[in-house]
Amino acid sequence: MKKNEFPPGWDEERVQSVITHYEQQTEDEAVAEDEAAFADESSVLIEVPIELVPAVRELIAQHVAKNPSQMEQSS
To answer: Which of 45, 29, 43, 32 is CA-nearest to residue 75?
Structure first.
């Protein structure tokens, strides 16, 4: 079996915490969380062709590496 690999700053405990959060969330809480995400003016949702996703992820990773405090504020 392959060992799980986590992104920087993530571990098994953090993953389990996120899973627990969403499993225990009510439908109303989920809707409120989604609405809050759409109202957040620090980011935007865009449609990206699937073949460009790896390039976009790389750009985001480069941005996070240069600006780690910005990602901490949004998570």
So the answer is: 43
CB burial of residue 64 (10 Å; 0-12, 13-18, 19+):
middle
Name the pTM for this structure: 0.54
Output the pLDDT for position 31.
97
pLDDT digits (tens, 9 = 90+) for 36-47: 988 989 888 899
Locus of tokens 């996703």:
53
Backbone CA torsion sign across 31, 70, 56, 5: negative
Residue listed under structure tokens 């600006």: 67
